[in-house]
Amino acid sequence: MRKFTTSAFVLLTCMMLLSITEGKQSDFLRCQCVKTYSGKPINPKLIQKVQMISAGPQCRNVEIIATLKNGLTCLNPTDEWVKNILEGFINNGPLRESQDCRHQEDRDDI
């Protein structure tokens, strides 16, 4: 009986750990931007960081995520002002490019 209880405990622990790690991975396998901002251009001085996520198996869209003082904003990659901001960050500032997904330590909730 004791051997069965120990085996059941180990099995339940493994299942719990597997479900926790699988749940975290599923966040990376989807688009990060539900909607994109396409309004009045944002002053580049207000943008602390820009992250570009290339299209891939996780999302068919290229996603541009800007970190502002008041939070994260997804930008429309087809807007001309967004292209200009990207070019400026590529040349001067902190642009982070991800091919498939972000690592947990780099991820910010959107």
From TrEMBL:
Span of domain Chemokine interleukin-8-like: 28-89
A GO term from the CC aspect: extracellular space
Broad class of where this protein is predominantly found: secreted
MF GO annotations: chemoattractant activity; chemokine activity
Compartments reported by the entry: Secreted
A single GO BP: immune response
Residue ranges the record marks as coiled coil: none
Keyword Nuclease attributed: no
InterPro entries reported for this sequence: Chemokine_b/g/d, Chemokine_IL8-like_dom, CXC_Chemokine_domain, Interleukin_8-like_sf
Record bears the keyword Cytoplasm: no
Domain of life: Eukaryota
Residues in the signal sequence: 1-23
Keywords of this entry: Cytokine, Disulfide bond, Inflammatory response, Secreted, Signal
Family: Belongs to the intercrine alpha (chemokine CxC) family.
Described function: Ligand for cxcr3.2. Chemotactic for macrophages.
The protein, known as: Chemokine (C-X-C motif) ligand 8b, duplicate 3
